[in-house]
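User: I'm preparing a small set of examples for a lab meeting where we compare how different chains pack in three dimensions. I only have the primary sequence for this one, and I'd like the structure in token form so I can line it up with the others. Please keep the answer compact; I'll paste it straight into my notes.
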Amino acid sequence: MKRTRVVQLDYYTGEIVAVYNSVEEASKDNFILASNLWKVLKWHGGKMRNRKLCFAKLADWLNI
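Assistant: Understood. Below is the structure token output for the 64-residue chain.
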């Protein structure tokens, strides 16, 4: 199974904070469920308003 690389962005500026090799790694490092992170990436543009976190798939972010 191919892992999806994820970048964590600053919520306000959009600067890269961290790069993760998988959604699971990003979720563990930020104390959130991987399933919630997948939902945020798919439906909410990567922003978690309640925690002031922002994520993007690395492939999508590089194409912006």
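A couple of notes for your slides: The beta strands are 6-9, 16-20, 47-48, 53-57. The mean pLDDT is 92.

User: Perfect, thanks.
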